[in-house]
Design goal:
It contains 19 helices and nine strands. By secondary structure, the protein is an alpha/beta fold. Helix 2 (about 40-50) packs across helix 3 (about 55-70).
Length: about 450
């Protein structure tokens, strides 16, 4: 921790000694730059996702919601940490000394996770380890576009790009080449030995000529789920600055994906390590330690408030409980291997045991029209999948671009079978309207409604 960023000399002293202890216990992380900031700045970071980011009206709405939640006592932000080399961590300057001491230990757990987890490492290699500098540069580009093209034009592009923010294909690379454009040539089909022998048998005709020979490949050649990339590269009339906005939003979406996909693991790992570091930090005064542990209990509690049973999973509590159970049964080295190799899907499916789920009182519930709530299932497989369902496909419906028609119209298909849900048609219409503003042709979405009936939603230009 830099001396210039430490509000309290004792915090800096404890932080340095906690870092030494973390290294001794085997944590391995990129350097962490800590900074104490006022609460309003911290809230802006939480809302925008970054200290400096492209301006958009939706962030203002999120800010109001965050203010309301904080005013009701439902949302207190202790820290925000950005993985990278170095990592950047922001602490609230009016947190108590015990709280910020705990936060320092918590951040070191995050830093260890983000350096060693394979998913984080892969996406950091693609998106780079300097997100704050990169996001500031993108914000500067947006400001330049606002000056040159005006708020209305720039906002229309941002509306569409941010509406599609989760619609990337995490199985593809960040930096991709366009589709091949060469015409299909005769003789490109390669038959295996069996096929050649089959077509040479008496009474069997030779393989018919491919009708696609001489034609240009269809765009896209297969369903394309990376909608931000597809529109940036293939929207007929997008200007260069508009394409840059789509690619900027896409790059930030790639950066944040591991945070989303490993939230339960990551928060649980950081909570395990802040509890262990504080427990083994014999240099901390007893009263500070007790206050910090009280803050730890508040963070990892399973209840919403006043001992009311929570109907949503607290990722800190669930992750912390699984790691504690796993380390107790298998040891810390096995846990570190799991930390390196898994994301939340493998972590929950493989290591949330039936015994632990019962101990944590996890269940699937259903609601009724009269507002009543009923426990529907305690089966461990159902519980696991209910926890993971909101994480599928970055939490967004699985939508693919499937065809550009002769007149340039765009067809989209909702893969509702793998998605396992219908769409809110009203919301789909609004998103299609945003897309059509930048596609500048008709856009059609084939989907199903909540009741499972087929629906076609069209936005015309």
């Amino acid at each position: 921790m830099h001396a210039a960023t430490a509000k309290d000399g004792r915090l800096q002293d404890y932080s340095q000694r906690i870092e030494q202890l973390a290294t001794k216990l085997g944590l391995d992380y990129y350097p962490v730059d800590f900074e104490l900031v006022p609460n309003n700045f911290m809230m802006e970071i939480a809302v925008y996702g970054l200290p400096v980011r492209m301006p958009h009206w939706s962030f203002g709405i999120r800010y109001i919601h965050q203010l309301i939640r904080q005013g009701m006592g439902n949302s207190r932000i202790f820290e925000v940490m950005f993985p990278g080399d170095p990592c950047h961590a922001y602490l609230v300057n009016n947190n108590t000394l015990p709280e910020n001491t705990l936060v320092v230990a918590h951040v070191l757990g995050h830093a260890d996770f983000s350096k060693n987890n394979h998913l984080f490492a892969r996406f950091m290699e693609m998106a780079g380890g300097h997100i704050l500098e990169q996001s500031a540069a993108r914000a500067h580009q947006i400001d330049a576009a606002l000056q040159e093209h005006g708020q209305e034009k720039v906002e229309a592009v941002l509306d569409a790009a941010l509406a599609l923010e989760p619609h990337i294909d995490v199985n593809r690379e960040l930096h991709r080449s366009p589709y091949p454009t060469a015409r299909i040539q005769a003789g490109t089909h390669v038959e295996d030995d069996f096929s050649r022998r089959f077509h040479s048998l008496p009474g069997e005709s030779a393989r018919p000529a491919d009708p696609a020979v001489g034609q240009r490949p269809q765009i896209p050649p297969q369903p394309e789920y990376d909608l931000l990339w597809f529109i940036a590269n293939y929207a007929p009339d997008l200007e260069g600055w508009e394409r840059d906005i789509f690619l900027a939003v896409r790059e930030e979406s790639y950066y944040f994906y591991p945070v989303f996909a490993c939230q339960i693991m990551n928060e649980g790992w950081a909570s395990y390590w802040h509890a262990r570091l504080l427990r083994e930090a014999d240099f901390l005064p007893q009263d500070l330690y007790l206050s910090a542990i009280k803050a730890h209990s508040d963070v990892v509690r399973p209840y919403a408030a006043d001992n009311q049973l929570a109907l949503a999973v607290n990722p800190y509590h669930l992750g912390f409980s699984i790691w504690e159970d796993l380390i107790e049964r298998k040891g810390i080295e096995f846990a570190r291997q799991v930390m390196r190799e898994e994301d939340d899907f493998g972590f929950i499916r493989n290591y949330l045991t039936p015994e632990l789920a019962e101990k944590l009182e996890l269940f699937v519930y259903e609601t009724h029209d009269d507002g009543g709530i009923k426990i529907a299932n305690r089966d461990i497989h159902q519980v696991r999948e209910a926890i993971l369902a909101p994480k599928f496909n970055y939490g967004a419906p699985r939508i693919a671009a499937t065809r550009i028609t002769v007149d340039g119209s765009l067809e989209l298909h909702h893969d509702h079978k793998s998605d396992g849900r219908g769409l809110d048609v009203g919301r789909a219409e609004r998103v299609l309207e945003y897309i059509s503003r930048v596609w500048r042709r008709s856009v059609t979405l084939h989907t199903v409604g909540y009741s499972g009936n087929a629906r076609i939603v069209t936005s015309k230009r």
